[in-house]
Amino acid sequence: MHKDTLLKRLNDKTAVIGIVGLGYVGLPLSLRYSEVGYKVVGFDIDQSKVDILKQGQTYIEHIGSEGIARAIKDGFEPTADLSRARDVDALILCVPTPLNKYREPDLSFVLNTVDALLPHLRTGQVMSLESTTYPGTTEEELRPRIEKAGLTVGEDVFLVFSPEREDPGNAKFTTHTIPKVCGGSTPSCLEVGLALYGQVINTVVPVSSTQAAELTKLLENIHRAVNIGLVNEMKIIADRMGIDIHEVIRAAATKPFGFVPYYPGPGLGGHCIPIDPFYLTWKAREYGLHTRFIELAGEINSTMPEWVVEKIADALNEREKPIRGSKILVLGIAYKKNVDDMRESPSVELMSILQAKGAEIAYSDPHVPSFPKMRRYSFDLESVELTPETLAGYDLVLLATDHDRFDYDTIEKHAKLIVDTRGHYLGVRSNVVKA
Ligand SMILES: NC(=O)c1ccc[n+]([C@@H]2O[C@H](COP(=O)([O-])OP(=O)(O)OC[C@H]3O[C@@H](n4cnc5c(N)ncnc54)[C@H](O)[C@@H]3O)[C@@H](O)[C@H]2O)c1
After folding, report:
1. DSSP 8-state class, residue 373
2. CB distance 162 to 198 below 8 Å
């Protein structure tokens, strides 16, 4: 009975949708539900984010204020008050799943969120976990908590896992054009899950269990981490052989089948690829298994900043300069191009290694005007404006993140020496070293 009422409310869009965690994942999803006509309540424990959103403003560069202002006008309600969970029909959890200092899964955000929601859960609700996690999380951690609160999953409340797929800064896709995988705790849960996402996502892909949905997301990200590791290793080999890896990748990518291009860089960044694979590594141990590809890719990817620093040292050495005392300008400190997200950015690791070796560090990033507060790093720096004079004032310019907004001609014309970690400058250039 609960199921039928809930399905009807989801299908005729009278259901109220609660999104928990208004970050890179939860915020665009909230806007999408609002856009198609649902009433949305957005929950976040960070009151400062709630306050900004309530004013119809954004705090994430690539998510425009206009969409937020429109949603607020249409009834989108950001709040830090989790007791409002009682008023919603769906609770979609989009909270962080980082690693702890031992590089093991840190489920505290997910579990604290669920524990905080439990007193407000009621019959006839659906809960969907979107945070990337290891197979078994929904069944082993969420389901028992809900059932301990006296609610039967599949009858009173419905539980699904539906991983988020986001590519911030990629204009080719939006939330509703990216197919979404969904697995339910029970067949009824899956049915409700498909209705929950069916109105807002063009293609919802059902799978037979929450575990299959959880592992699907990990496979996608492990596939990327391993292939990036492979191409980073190929870069080191090609460099030693005097071959330009970027030329080789471009040539290989003309093969119309069986090859997918991945691009090397100064190391892995972002909230997903450097972190998620280790969720599987941890869980696999319970089964006496080792995730060797993941470990190997992790090893190669995490040593890339050191390799780049070696190339920098060699390039300066050629010009009879040591790293110590050299003025180095790092271009791009976000973890990837055209976004302002600094999480796990290899640029920052590079800045930190170079500074420890005595370099005088500055940075320029049109998306990050001043160096933000980070857990592991602290730089009291503002983004340097790129002019011919400023560029000429540095011993070395390190292209770490190739934002489209950089004026690459001016950079090449005025920088004394460029170390390019992104393969931006094609062919042989007198002042460019590829790394
Ligand atoms: N960013 C991406 O591109 C991306 C893509 C796919 C999947 N994911 C996954 O989605 C999940 C969320 O990632 P994100 O990038 O949106 O994180 P985020 O840090 O941008 O946002 C998470 C939000 O949750 C809030 N929060 C934390 N605990 C809370 C609680 N108890 N109650 C309410 N709000 C709480 C935080 O204040 C924050 O605003 C992670 O598991 C991540 O791996 C992220």
Report:
1. P
2. no
For residue 46 and ligand 1, the question of a CB distance below 6 A is answered with: yes
- Return the closest-CA partner of residue 367 out of 335, 405, 340, 333: 340
Distance 94 CA to ligand 1 centre (A): 5
Query: Within 10 A of 39 (CB to CB), how many other CB atoms are there?
Result: 19
Sequence-separated (6 or more) residues with CB below 8 Å from residue 283:
105, 134, 135, 136
Whole-structure pTM over 0.90, yes or no? yes
- Which amino acid type is present at position 246? H
Smallest CA-to-CA distance from 401 within 73, 169, 102, 86 is with 169
Longest dimension (CA), the chain: 79
For the stretch 171-183, pLDDT in tens is: 899 899 999 999 9
Whether 272 sits among the annotated catalytic residues: the reply is yes
Reported confidence tier of residue 170, pLDDT bands at 50, 70, 90: confident
Per-residue burial over 308-338, b if 16 or more Cβ lie within 10 Å, else e, is bbebbbebbeeeebebeebebbbbbbbbbbb
